[in-house]
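Worked example 2:
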Amino acid sequence: MKVLILLAVMLFLFPSPILRVRAEESGEAALPAAEEYAVAARNDVWLYSEENEESGLFLLPYTYYVRVLERGEEYSAVVYGEDTAPYRTVEGYCKTDLLTFVGFIPERPFLKLEVTVTYTVPGASSQMGNGTFDEIERTFHYYGTSYLGTQRYFYVLSDGVFDYIPAARDVNYELNTDYLTDTAGPAEETPAPAPEPDASLSGIEIAALAAGILAVAAIAFFVLRGRKAPVPAETDDF
């Protein structure tokens, strides 16, 4: 009898395993990890092609972002730019301690800037014709600035190809300020909330719970009805 009472009470008090099984068997896919971004909050943040200082591609535009693929102790794997024509992404590495990691997705993470360069045709002479085509203008998509010694270059994209062109002038662009209101430094990991059980129950589960409650009530009723009153103990006459 005590075993039956214990089983009935456990069925009544611990129905949650049924709900957890339903949640596990529902086959819901896990949510993808949130994207992480880091800003070049200083003007000396290089994007490297490899994890060493000799492989610098260009300096990231000041106050613009990289998308973080993997945060490392010394170098972090990152992506700059987007794969939306006419732009392309550039994968590489940045020094982790030079990046400022943010806890939001920026509205304007990558700089979109065009630079136009004028080339003079070698050997052109205005003696024949009016010189209309002695100079040619070409527009490039600017990614960042690099240096070779004291000579400055722009890292640019044109027709899907990356290369360097001499920097004939400075570039001016609007700076981001959204990161100034966000907490600087590595983002702290917060524990994921415990999954909530599915609140919807099937007819079979409802019937099983109702039967368990009725069983507990019935067993308690018969136990109380069948319990005999205690016989008073005999006492000595004084």
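Residues 16-32, 183-190, 231-238 have pLDDT under 50 and may be disordered. The two ends are 43 Å apart (CA to CA).
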